Description:
Blueprint: H1 9-23, E1 31-32, E2 37-45, E3 48-57, E4 69-79, E5 89-90, E6 95-101, E7 106-116, E8 121-131, E9 135-137, H2 146-150, E10 153-154, E11 157-160, E12 163-166, E13 168-174, E14 178-179, E15 182-183, E16 208-216, E17 219-226, E18 232-240, E19 247-254, E20 270-271, E21 277-279, H3 299-302, E22 323-328, E23 335-340, E24 348-353, E25 359-364, E26 367-369, E27 371-378, E28 381-396, E29 402-414, H4 415-423, H5 428-431, E30 432-435, E31 448-451, E32 463-468, H6 473-479, H7 481-487, E33 494-495, E34 497-503, E35 508-513, E36 524-525, E37 528-529, E38 550-559, E39 564-568, E40 570-576, E41 609-615, E42 620-625, E43 635-640, E44 646-651, E45 657-667, E46 670-678, E47 698-706
Antiparallel strand pairs: 1-2, 2-3, 3-4, 5-6, 6-7, 7-8, 9-11, 10-44, 11-12, 13-47, 14-15, 16-17, 17-18, 18-19, 20-21, 21-22, 22-23, 24-25, 25-27, 26-33, 27-28, 28-29, 29-40, 30-32, 31-32, 34-35, 35-38, 36-37, 38-39, 38-40, 41-42, 42-43, 43-44, 45-46, 46-47
Amino acid sequence: MINLNTFSAVTTAMVFLSLKTVLAQSCSTATLESNLNFIIPCIELAGHQLNLGMQLNFEESSPPEAGYSWTLNRLQNTNCSGKSADCAQFDDNLNITLPINLETGERHVAHLEYSLKSDKGGVAWKYVNHRIKNLAFDPVKVPETDEEKRAILVSKSVTIDDKRYDIGFYTLLRSGQQIGENVFGQLIDSQGKPLVAEDGSPHLSNDNDFSSLIPVGQKIFMVSHFESRPAAMYLTELEQNSTTGLLKAISTKPLDFSKVHGGWVHCAGSVTPWNTHLGSEEYEPDADKRNPITGSISDYYDAMGAYYGGDLLKLNPYDYGYTIEVKILNEAGDYTVTKHYAMGRLAFELAYVLPDNKTVYASDDGTNVGLYLFVADREMDLSSGTLYAARWNQISAENGGSANLDWINLGHATDEDIKAYLDKGITFTDIFDKVALTEAGTCPSGYTSINAGHEEDKTGNFHQCLKLKPGMEPAASRLETRRYAAMMGATTEFRKEEGITFNPVTNTLYVAISEIAQGMEDQQKNGTTDNKYDVGGFNQIKLPYNLCGGVYALDLEKNDTIGSRYVAKNMQGLVVGRMTQAYAENSTLPAYEGPFANNKCDLDSIANPDNITFIPEYNTLIIGEDTGSGHQNDMIWSYNLKTKVLTRIQTTPYGSETTSPYIYKDINGFGYLMSVVQHPFGESDDDKLNEAQEAFGYTGYIGPFPSLK
């Protein structure tokens, strides 16, 4: 903000003349337009040339703030000289960033320094060269012995710019662990009372999932997910050793979700730029299947009835499947819990906010699902906005496939708009008229044919025939988001869409796809002819199946129609797993034998990538796995974008999942990589379980690191 409130008209004119003179020295003659736009023909930075325009706005802003501000009029790359990974970015702080040079490991930032005084004025460019630092983890071996397969193996050290730091895996809490008056992972009902199993024992969850670190004042809090029905979130206060950086849990308590009808299957999450916890509710229940007499849908859903003492009629499936924001208000640990109905209802893996504090990407886990973009009306406020769904326009089937993306507008809504429907007890039949397929396997006239959902319908198909009831567009877009997106022409063929992270250096989004299979194939299932996943839709994704999955890169750009600088224009495979002959007979990789026989994906590559996080200063992508038979022991990897090298940095015990690795670059001078180990022995190898406590989940972190800024 440049505040010129005290300037006289004469002084202001002098400022313009001075600005014009200084800017003209940048490359060529700058022009000053009558509308006060400064057009700079080119600026040279490290071999890059840019055209841009800046506008000095002399209209006073609305109270309570008054003043004048710089706004970007246009920015165009004239010549990137083939040296940078992407085009330059211009941020709100008037910094031009030329993204990382992947050959030299450098990025370039030009800061627009300005000074406007009553007697003179000036604008100058200052060039700063930021070198991307080197980061290398000690590799971890593939577990081979029974002892290794039961353990958590982790890198013993990390080297940062030739300096070695000792690190390890540190457990903060395990499920079932008592700390103070509360037991971490104890599930509670709507009255806040502990749930008990049929034998009267405490109903504990071993499904530890995403855990955030939230500094508030002089304290550090952790918000932890438990992926159950009913679900739970716990708020834990941590103590940090100021010398070593080691963290210790000193108190914990369950969060009260009674005002939002309880929590459901809290999976992955993220931390917003404004320091709130953004959680999720995965595998939203299918309201179409609800029995109106009993309230039952399935055994999976009916477990939620315990929240209301077993009364399923108190449940509405439309109360579950949202992004949840938890705000910690003060050092006392007071908090608020908000379900953001305006962001849609999905099998949310997680939602991830971009640096403008308005653009949010959401991944949808399951079968025949979509990819979504939400643009909030206001910064740091997710209670209202416009929702979009992606349409995949395939270019290639190589290396996991590539496509250009279009975005289908699903309309605007507010949390209050959608809550009004929920308060009235809305049902599926209030929104849609659904009919059976004709004998020819098509939809009757007037009905839209779709192939959407993360579960099969009552007839065992994904193919459905729907007609939207009059005036129900807002309800459909937010309560039946995937079905409505399919009706509007979006792609609902993705399979197990998982983690999301962002690279601010190259303006790239990364999305993990756990399996390239089923709807992502062309009229096939796992390489065998089967039209079940494509027959009702557009069959827009046509890829060779790969049960090892892949991580995709999405280039972002400014889109004036959508109103965001972070709109994905394409999507292409970045790191793709490799099947052995145990998965695909035509694979060039033989099946493993001996102690590695239970691995069906290449042990030197990823298997079923789940959640991911990015360290921009080190050009490093962290990839966690959620795999059953791809790798017997789930792994976390470090991937260097410059060298393309994958390094195994952690393995977890039999039958567990590596959930939600998430980087915290600097908390009081130390960095942390959160790492949660979910349900050991719970997904496979349950016959290896010797003692009950071996099955308890681990909530912990890898580190501590020095500051990673």
